[in-house]
Structures are given as structure tokens and as C-alpha cells.
């Protein structure tokens, strides 16, 4: 995979230059499966005469040359940080004056193990015939792919041309801008992309593979390998309805195209909100559209996260809390208020599990944590999502209900669009917008919500209508003695929706492990082993392993390795690891599958299982 040139257009402030536009040109070339060779151009201007210097973030990049307007520029690579990488210091060979336009070209090569990139062999794909590449830059991995100002505080547009073998297709987090035969090689094709809306570096994305697409709406296509494309088209057929619903709530969709790409199973997240090209895990392909709320979440990011962005990762809740709030408002519009309340109850349980995992006194459970010298991958949890949502829901109740508070959210988006902000800026605008209710806002315990670890200071009282049947069935299983297990039957779950069955299993996971006799009986009457819905299967297998059912161990390890979504893979490995008899088996299976895992997933599972990195690679 070779890129000849990447152009950055950078415009200055009084003391520095800032990246405004990135142009990978003339070509990314997908030619091998280990390195990315690139030259980056930066276009600069400044506001005062001086010998301009700039620091770019890099990670494991081999920089060979830097020029400015064709002249050699001095550059140095600073000391390497364990997870933040290496600063690239560039000094222009001439003074820079206000308004001056400068092209800076950086020639470099990525490392084979660049943390932003996963290279898949044909055997790791669904089609088994062609290699596959995908990037995942959030939170700070773009620097391993492109020298950049790798912070959400900086936004830029970009343009790209990608050359690939004709049997492969390239897509990016940008609007497709045409394709044509490669004039330098008749066996290749060139794909062009442009992203005219400013966005932070963590949203740059590129995918190359044997992709096909299907139209699922007037501005949407679904992409995947042909083995999944029709199933994905069915699963995500409600995308346009979700987009229109979101526009009604938050304002116009400014990104043009909204496509969804179903990635290979190793993708570590449920979805990723790359502009114009949402990533989705194949674990969403349940066959009944029951898991499409993830798409509602990623659509919501088009406003909260991509358009209004957290200035630093300490304020990540601004992205995720508002996005969960908007996602559930979409659910409210498309389903019902009871459905929104039901999903909020499930979110509260996810938050409780994260707090239990990290520890109630762990500062990483603060809504606004201190992330100095913290690896952001290790800090990732549901806290910014669900603690953030809980705060917004609490404020909704205080300010007058969902319609009133959604008015604030829409106004907040309009005011801060195309910018990156902090919690203090958000809070200041909250007090400005609700200027007639400042006395109520002043009674909120802001320190407890923002800067105190553990669960929120206020637990919302959600409507439990949809959860009541789940709660009642959970209580029956917990209280029933072994001799009375015959009272359960398949009809217990016949009237439960997919969401309610997931909730039932989630409730059981919060209890002490069930006796082995109980989970065996549950399998007899509910046939849960036959469910392919990933959310159901994940919870069921965890429940079985917690109850020390040995038959479930190989199934749990199979699920942990046949897909790589961290939400599933990490807890499944940990459950088996904590089953004393299978402690070593968990480590053995992980080591055997590590090379096929995404680097972020592999690194975190290794820490979970206390596997020494050097001995296991």
C-alpha cells in the first residue's frame, strides 16, 4: 500500500500553523500488505514574520524527507512515548509572513504494525480470495497512518485519490468523486474522494477490499463483501427514515452522502461514525433489524461529535452523551416514549457494569476524567455514553421535558457546529439558553456529576413498563428452587421482544451466578444456544460460564475469536479466564488467535489476561 503524496493546507494563528486541508495526491497505492509509504504536503500561512516551526504527531513512522515549497526543510523526531508516539518538529527554511501560502511535503513510511491499520489476508475475509485493509483512527491512532495534528481540537477538509487493483474497491470517509482506469497501470483503478466539511483527524478512514454495494436510500448505500451485502441491505433498510427523523430533531444533514460499510468480523467496535461512511460490525446483522439502534447512534454522531466535537478527550462525554440522547430521541420518534425509557434503563445497567469493572473510586469513571498519561484505549468504557446520557436526561426532567430540552440540544448544535468545545463552554451555553431557570440549574451538584467517580448522584426514575416482564421472569429464575424448575416453559419468552430478551439476560448477569441446574434447564426450555443474535448469545454464554457450565466454554471462546468486537470479546475472555479450570485455556486460545485480531483488541485482551506482550507475539 503506497501513497506518493499527501498535501496539507495549513493556515496560521499568531504563533503557529494549523492544518486546514489534507490532500493525499497523486495516489494512494494498494500494492502490498505491510507498509504505507507516503509524502505529505502541508499548505501554510502565518500572521507574522518569523522562522516558522510546527510539531506534528507521528507514531512508528519512518520520515525520510521534508520540503517546503520544494526547498529542503529541517526536521527532527523527538523522544518516543509508549502510546502517544513521536513528535515531528519541522522548521521552514525561510521566514513566513501573514497570508503566505506554503506547501510542506513530508515523505515517510508507516510501520507494518501501524495501530490505525489492520491488514487482513484473504483467509481472514469472507470471500477468502482477496486481501483487505481498514483503518480505525479514534482516538489517537491517525498519527500512525498520517503525520498530523492528531487532536479533536483541530479540524480540516481533505481530498484523496486511491489506486487499487481493479478487482478491489476503495472507500473513504468522504464523498465519492469519481473513478477511472489508472493511466500508469491498466490492471488498476483510481478512486477519488473529497471531504469539504472540516473534521478532526480521528475521522479519517480508508477501506480497500472486494467490496460491493446496494442502494438503501436516496443518499445511502451499504457496502460490504458480497457474502454480507444483501443481508446488510435488509438490516439497514430504515436508514433514510432514521436520517429524516434525526434532521427533524437536530437540523439539516450537512455531509451529503450517508453510507454504511459492514467490516470484517475483527472490527473492534459496534460502529464508527466516520463522515459519509459509517463503519458497522457484522454482529449487527441479526436478521430482524433489532440491533439497528447502533446505526441510529452513528447517524446521531453526524451532529454531535462530527459537527460539534469535544475539544480534548477529557470532554468525550460531549460527543457520546449527546449522541446517546439523540439516538434515543430517534427511537422515541420511531417507536415510543416507553421504548426510549426501556433503552435508558438498559444503559443504566451498562454504566453500572463499567463502574463495577473499573471500581467505584476509579477517576476514569468521572464524567470529565483527567487523562494525563492515560492510554485512551484503556480508558474506553460506557461511562461517557451512559453517565453523559443520565445527566442530560436529568436536566431534561428539570427543564421541562423532552421537547423543551431537545430545543436546547438543537440550538447547541447550531451554535457550535464546525467547532470543538469543552464542558465549560457547553455548561455556559446551557445556563444562557435556560436563563429563566438558572436557580434550578444552580441546585444541580455539578461537581458530583462531572468530577466525582462512581455512579451519578441522581438515579433517574425511568418508566419500567417494557421492563416489567423481564424483571418478573428474572426474579422467578433467581428464587426458584431446583425441584421447581419444571414450572418453566418455552412460553415464558414467546411474548418477549428481542430487546426484552436481551434485558432479561442482562438482569440475570447482575445477580449472583445461577446454579448449574438452572442454566441447563434454561437451555432446555428456551433453546438459547440456537440464537444467533450477538447481543443475546453474548449474554447467554457469559451467564453459562459464570455458572461453571463447562459445555459453554468452547462456545464462549469461539464467539470471542470468530468476531473481534471488544464489547463481546473482552468480557467473554475474562469470564473463561476467571473460571479457574479454564484459566490456561483462555490464554492458550487468545495467543493462538492474537495475530488475526485488531491490534487494539489484542493489546487490551492481553492486559485483561495478564499475557506478557513479548512472550505472546
UniProtKB/TrEMBL annotation:
Domain Peptidase M1 leukotriene A4 hydrolase/aminopeptidase C-terminal: 465-609
One Gene Ontology biological process: peptide catabolic process
GO CC terms of this entry: cytosol; nucleus
Protein name: Leukotriene A(4) hydrolase
InterPro entries, per database record: Aminopeptidase_N-like_N, Aminopeptidase_N-like_N_sf, ARM-type_fold, LTA4H, LTA4H_cat, M1_LTA-4_hydro/amino_C_sf, M1_LTA4H, Peptidase_M1
Biochemical pathway: Lipid metabolism; leukotriene B4 biosynthesis
Organism: Oncorhynchus tshawytscha (Chinook salmon)
CDD domains: M1_LTA4H
Gene from which this protein is expressed: LTA4H
UniProt keyword Protease, yes or no: yes
Organism superkingdom: Eukaryota
Subcellular location: Cytoplasm
Catalytic activity: leukotriene A4 + H2O = leukotriene B4
UniProt keyword Protease, yes or no: yes
Entry binding sites for Zn(2+): 297, 301, 320
Residue sites binding a peptide per the record: 136-138, 268-273, 565-567
GO MF term set: epoxide hydrolase activity; leukotriene-A4 hydrolase activity; metalloaminopeptidase activity; zinc ion binding
Keywords of the record: Cytoplasm, Hydrolase, Leukotriene biosynthesis, Metal-binding, Metalloprotease, Protease, Zinc
EC number: 3.3.2.6
Cofactor note: Binds 1 zinc ion per subunit.
Lineage: Eukaryota, Metazoa, Chordata, Craniata, Vertebrata
Predominant location: cytoplasm
Family to which the UniProt record says this protein belongs: Belongs to the peptidase M1 family.
Cofactor(s) listed: Zn(2+)
Active site as annotated: 298, 385
Amino acid at each position: 500500500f503506497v501513497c506518493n503524496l499527501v498535501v496539507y493546507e495549513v493556515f496560521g494563528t499568531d504563533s503557529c500553523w494549523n492544518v486546514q486541508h489534507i490532500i493525499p495526491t497523486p495516489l494512494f497505492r494498494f500494492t502490498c500488505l505491510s507498509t504505507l509509504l507516503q509524502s505529505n504536503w502541508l499548505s501554510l500561512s502565518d500572521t507574522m514574520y518569523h522562522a516558522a516551526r510546527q510539531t506534528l504527531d507521528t507514531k512508528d513512522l519512518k520520515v525520510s524527507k521534508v520540503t517546503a515549497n520544494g526547498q529542503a526543510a529541517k526536521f527532527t523526531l523527538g523522544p518516543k512515548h509508549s502510546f502517544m508516539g513521536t513528535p515531528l518538529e519541522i522548521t521552514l527554511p525561510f521566514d513566513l509572513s501573514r497570508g503566505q501560502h506554503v506547501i510542506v511535503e513530508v515523505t515517510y513510511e508507516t510501520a507494518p504494525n501501524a495501530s490505525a491499520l489492520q491488514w487482513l489476508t484473504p483467509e481472514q475475509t469472507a470471500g477468502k480470495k482477496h486481501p483487505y485493509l481498514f483503518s480505525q483512527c479514534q482516538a489517537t491512532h491517525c498519527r500512525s497512518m498520517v503525520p498530523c495534528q492528531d487532536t479533536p481540537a483541530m479540524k480540516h477538509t481533505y481530498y484523496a485519490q486511491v489506486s487499487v487493483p481493479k478487482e478491489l474497491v476503495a472507500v473513504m470517509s468522504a464523498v465519492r468523486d469519481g473513478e477511472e482506469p489508472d493511466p500508469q497501470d491498466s490492471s488498476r483503478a483510481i478512486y477519488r474522494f473529497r471531504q469539504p466539511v472540516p473534521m478532526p483527524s480521528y475521522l479519517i478512514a480508508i477501506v480497500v477490499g472486494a467490496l460491493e454495494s446496494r442502494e438503501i436510500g436516496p443518499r445511502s448505500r451499504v457496502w460490504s463483501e458480497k457474502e454480507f451485502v444483501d443481508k446488510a441491505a435488509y438490516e439497514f433498510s430504515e436508514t433514510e427514515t432514521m436520517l429524516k427523523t434525526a434532521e427533524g430533531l437536530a437540523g439539516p444533514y450537512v455531509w451529503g452522502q450517508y453510507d454504511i460499510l459492514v467490516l470484517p468480523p475483527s472490527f473492534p467496535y459496534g460502529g464508527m461514525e466516520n463522515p459519509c461512511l459509517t463503519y458497522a460490525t457484522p454482529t449487527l446483522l441479526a436478521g430482524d433489524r433489532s440491533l439497528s439502534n447502533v446505526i441510529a447512534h452513528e447517524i446521531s454522531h453526524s451532529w454531535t461529535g462530527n459537527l460539534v466535537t469535544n475539544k480534548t478527550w477529557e470532554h468525550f462525554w460531549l460527543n457520546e452523551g449527546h449522541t446517546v440522547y439523540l439516538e434515543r430521541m430517534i427511537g422515541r420518534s420511531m417507536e415510543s416514549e416507553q421504548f426510549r425509557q426501556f433503552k435508558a434503563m438498559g444503559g443504566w445497567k451498562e454504566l453500572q457494569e463499567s463502574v463495577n469493572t473499573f471500581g467505584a473510586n476509579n477517576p476514569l469513571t468521572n464524567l470529565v476524567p483527567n487523562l494525563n498519561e492515560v492510554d485512551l484505549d484503556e480508558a474506553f468504557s460506557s461511562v461517557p455514553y451512559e453517565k453523559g446520557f443520565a445527566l442530560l436526561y436529568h436536566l431534561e426532567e428539570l427543564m421541562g421535558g423532552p421537547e423543551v430540552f431537545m430545543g436546547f440540544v438543537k440550538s447547541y448544535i447550531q451554535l457550535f457546529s464546525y467547532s470543538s468545545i469543552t464542558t465549560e463552554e457547553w455548561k455556559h451555553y446551557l445556563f444562557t439558553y435556560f436563563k429563566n431557570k438558572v436557580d434550578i440549574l444552580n441546585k444541580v451538584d455539578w461537581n458530583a456529576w462531572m468530577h466525582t467517580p462512581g455512579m451519578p448522584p441522581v438515579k433517574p426514575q425511568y418508566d419500567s413498563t417494557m421492563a416489567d416482564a423481564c424483571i418478573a421472569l428474572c426474579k422467578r429464575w433467581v428464587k426458584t428452587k431446583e425441584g421447581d424448575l419444571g414450572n418453566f416453559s418455552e412460553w415464558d419468552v414467546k411474548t418477549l421482544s428481542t430487546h426484552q430478551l436481551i434485558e432479561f439476560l442482562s438482569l440475570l448477569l447482575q445477580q449472583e451466578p445461577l446454579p448449574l441446574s438452572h442454566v441447563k434447564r434454561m437451555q432446555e426450555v428456551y433453546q438459547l444456544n440456537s440464537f444467533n443474535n450477538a447481543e443475546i448469545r453474548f449474554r447467554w454464554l457469559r451467564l453459562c460460564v459464570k455458572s461453571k457450565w463447562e459445555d459453554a466454554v468452547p462456545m464462549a471462546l469461539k464467539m470471542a475469536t470468530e468476531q473481534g468486537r471488544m464489547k463481546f470479546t473482552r468480557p467473554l475472555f475474562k469470564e473463561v479466564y476467571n473460571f479457574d479450570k479454564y484459566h490456561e485455556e483462555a490464554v492458550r486460545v487468545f495467543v493462538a488467535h492474537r495475530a488475526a485480531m485488531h491490534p487494539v483488541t489484542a493489546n487490551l485482551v492481553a492486559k485483561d489476561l495478564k499475557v506478557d506482550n513479548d512472550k505472546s507475539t
